[in-house]
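Hello Y.,

Per our agreement to keep a running log of every chain we model this quarter, I'm adding this entry. I've kept the format consistent with earlier entries: sequence first, then predicted structure.
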Amino acid sequence: MNPRSAARNAFRSSWTMRRRIIVIVLVWCGAMVTYLAILGRPIQLSETAVNGLLLLMASVIGSYVFGAVWDDKGGLTNIGGVGGGGMQTEMYQRTVVPADMPTPGPAMPPPPGEGP
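Predicted structure for the entry above:
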């Protein structure tokens, strides 16, 4: 078995486990929100719990989507070093003016009313 397919299988199995956890959390949150909406007492604690559960559901969905995008973008392209895969980096060049180099003029114009 080549290293690329072995890594791809490990990649899929990790996402299988992640999906199970995500589905369990979402079903549990949905059940709790439904229970509190139908059978819960109309108190501030129930409202706060429902808000927290809805925020948890939103954060789990957001993490799943962006985690999948992140893994898909970088995970499969860098497996085993096959096909020239490697971390792609961007190079930036920084221009720095030495402190002892004189500038051609004033850094800023003088304020109005304070002419030269």
